[in-house]
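Suppose you are handed only two things: the residues of a chain and a line of SMILES describing zinc ion. What would the bound structure be? This form records exactly that question and the answer produced for it, so the two can be stored side by side and reused later without any lookup.

QUESTION INPUTS
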Amino acid sequence: MPELVLSTSTSFFFGGIQAAFRNAQKYGFKYLEIVPYRWTRPETILALEKTFGIAVAGIHLPGWWQKTLWQAFRDSPDILEKALVPLWYFSLGNASQNPGLALAEALEARRPYLLLHSNVVEEMRGAFPSFAKTYRVVVENIPVFRRSPSRRFYWDPLEIHRTIRDQGLTAGLVFDIGHLRQTRKLLPEINLLEMYQETRPEIIHISYNSNGIHTLPDKPEQIELIALLKIHQPKYIVLETNPLVNIKRGKELLEKIIEESQ
Ligand SMILES: [Zn+2]
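ANSWER OUTPUT
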């Protein structure tokens, strides 16, 4: 059975990481996915793990490896995402300097996953292979907003899987259904079920109605999610919704979905 994980995205603006630990304990999660701010200290996270009895399952690095604010803004594909770039840039910074790396080292014995968006892997280029050998890397598909020149590696989990394997490397996959559904609006030929079946991802992200909105699945999306889980059960299902979504409701819904998929 998949383990439910709470993302610190659920308290990004209110209370931050500490609030996420408190909510995880309050609502009965055992694991957190941490999105470290630029100022997050690994020691703080280790102390919070002890205080709340919650373990860090994984660490979500920022959406750029090494860019200036201007480059990050310029490369952001969509108007809503562009509007959020200064906020992400100020609060998370570049992945290469993010404290998530020090946190992964502090937690080394437990090997939490280190999440990179597909575009970050591409940006890293030559730096990626040694990175993938050092850490337990998982790669997440991002949505595309234009038919061209969007690269298949960005949005297609199967392409991500193949490309990494062809380099002789191993990395887990984060199957972000919200991102894929968003991509499908542009590329209706996408067969989500088939992609899922062939990649058998380690992690599912719950971030429906993408475009930075990140909500819970509606009824048809719930039915689709049950169908996916019947094909393959990932290790983790991460509630990566926005801070206005009710965490308790999200957890109960996901538990019901997992139960129905057994
Ligand atoms: Zn995601």
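WHAT STANDS OUT: The chain has a mean pLDDT of 93. The pocket of zinc ion is lined by residues 140, 176, 205, 207, 240 (CB under 6 Å).
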